[in-house]
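Section 3.1: Structural characterization of target chains.
Under the original work plan, the team committed to producing a structural model for every single-chain target entering the pipeline before any wet-lab resources were allocated. The record below documents one such target. The sequence was received from the expression subgroup and is listed exactly as submitted; it comprises 123 residues.
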Amino acid sequence: MTEKKALRILDYIEHIIIAITRIESYVEGLDRAAFVESSLVQDAVIRNFEIIGEAANKIRTVDDGFAQRHPRLRLELAYAMRNALAHGYDSVNLLTVWNTIHNDLPTMKQQMMDIRLTPEDER
């Protein structure tokens, strides 16, 4: 992989980490009911899920072997969720979004942070 591609991947990883951090800050102190009641928070969270999914897809586009080297990241699911949220805007399941925030994003954030710190030839 060229140095330019490696730098782009690091950019996309950083975009994902930032988006997850924003989602965490938006839901901090909220319970599920408060999340379901707040369209403002929902909109902010969904926008950042779209960023995560788009960045995940760009990683796959820049380096098609990245997903194979990191199968636990589930980049394809992040992109599928992005598509479901963007194109199925009228049928978003807020409980699925809430559960994804709490069950999947912490792991993804840690994985991305670990990859970011990994030397380029091991990424």
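The two ends are 10 Å apart (CA to CA).
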